[in-house]
Task: structure prediction
Amino acid sequence: MLRILNLNKTYADETKALNHINLTIGKGIFGLIGPNGAGKSTLIRTIATLQEPDQGSIFFDEINLLKQKDKIRENLGYLPQDFGTYPSVSAENLLDHLAILKGIVNSKERGSIVKYLLKLTNLYVYRNKKLGGFSGGMKQRFGIAQALLGDPKLLIVDEPTAGLDPLERARFHNLLSEISTEKTILFSTHIVADVNELCNDMAILNQGEILLQSSPMQAIELLQNKVWSKVVQKSEVEDYTQKYKVISSKFLHGKVLLKVFSDHSVEEFEASSPDLEDVYFSFIKSFYRGVNHHV
Result:
């Protein structure tokens, strides 16, 4: 169980990156979603013991992350957004080297672990291939392999599917799902579909504040009978935006599909079944009010 209590962080330029963050995260995959600049990376780096908050506490089970950094690092795996590798080194050799740095000094044990992780991430057949020749998805899977060294109980992945093609994204999803049973995985992303497909719990973060913590299914339930849609001409979009709370607008065969938020039926608009993207935009645009942060 990861518990974040009253976490605050303000930078020197007076940007309030984290504003009284409170989260409780159990086993499985927890989605942290928000736009660029929402505070996701600050929160991730703080949990990963890479920076200090101004105020607050973080506990993982009985470990105080901010006071027992060495202890939590024994139980922590981390895949940062910008994961660097040595391009002229093979996957097997680099993973073996990283395993030594992780404290796995017995060569036989280390060899077994490296082999297992390369197979788990579907990279064993490429074990002798230099990392400079890996695709983006292969590099991300290697990133997970190195993050799993030492069998961590807490795994943090920051924007792991950004830039991946659909096939590699699906492979990465399958990998995370496979390893999530006995781990707490914090999955930071701005891609709503990733959260919808992967996560059993989630939080929307914007401007340093938690707007909602919920399961994806419960979050979607909040918007039942509150989303209305209509296909309009491009020239009409601005007028409708002035008149209604527009959740989103998408081009559709030369026209625009508008979705609006309203507690009541909207003239000329049809009722629309909400999805997680509707929830995300409704909370980011502050259309939905009067709900507790935790559902």
